[in-house]
Amino acid sequence: MKNLYLCGFMGAGKTTVAKALSKRLELPCYDTDDLIVLQAGMPIPAIFSKEGEEGFRRRETACLRQLGGQSGAVIATGGGLVMNPKNVEIMKNQGILVFLDAPFELCYLRIHGDKNRPNAASRTKEELYALYRERKTVYRKASDAVIACRNRLAPVLNQLEQLYKENE
């Protein structure tokens, strides 16, 4: 069984979708950000403060390599994880990469003022929108499938379930 990796911008709903889908498909669920926090023994802002974004990105790649031993799992990835081509290669070798395409305004409503998101907390709305546009291009190019995400979970879960079953 292949892993199903969910990518997308901060606030797109990757973790929420991953948890709901894993219950529906009766598969294990992992969130790379949660695993990094657990392994580091400190929250993401502290990792950024202590090791910089580069240190955090190294931890993301190491986390993906560890998850490569899994099969048949739903994995929510951090918003910037796909920006590293090495990470994309790891995910594509282990499963299916799906871009959860949520509109910027929805993402912004969810992440605005969130102190646990260093890349969001330190940027203006305009800067976040520029980052969103840059990443969206990479998400689309890297992904095996794109699923539009609005504020309704059921249609997203239905599409992901169908995609997963087609690729089992």
UniProtKB/TrEMBL annotation:
GO terms for biological process: amino acid biosynthetic process; aromatic amino acid family biosynthetic process; chorismate biosynthetic process. GO terms for molecular function: ATP binding; magnesium ion binding; shikimate kinase activity. Keywords: Amino-acid biosynthesis, Aromatic amino acid biosynthesis, ATP-binding, Cytoplasm, Kinase, Magnesium, Metal-binding, Nucleotide-binding, Transferase. It is found in: Cytoplasm. Binds 1 Mg(2+) ion per subunit. InterPro entries: P-loop_NTPase, Shikimate/glucono_kinase, Shikimate_kinase/TSH1, Shikimate_kinase_CS. Mg(2+) binds at T15. Its main location: cytoplasm. PROSITE patterns: SHIKIMATE_KINASE. Its EC number is 2.7.1.71. The keyword Hydrolase does not apply. It catalyses: shikimate + ATP = 3-phosphoshikimate + ADP + H(+). ATP binds at G11, A12, G13, K14, T15, T16, R117, R152. GO terms for cellular component: cytosol. Its cofactor is Mg(2+). Gene3D superfamilies: P-loop containing nucleotide triphosphate hydrolases. Pathway: Metabolic intermediate biosynthesis; chorismate biosynthesis; chorismate from D-erythrose 4-phosphate and phosphoenolpyruvate: step 5/7. Belongs to the shikimate kinase family. Catalyzes the specific phosphorylation of the 3-hydroxyl group of shikimic acid using ATP as a cosubstrate. Monomer. This is Shikimate kinase. It comes from Massiliimalia timonensis.
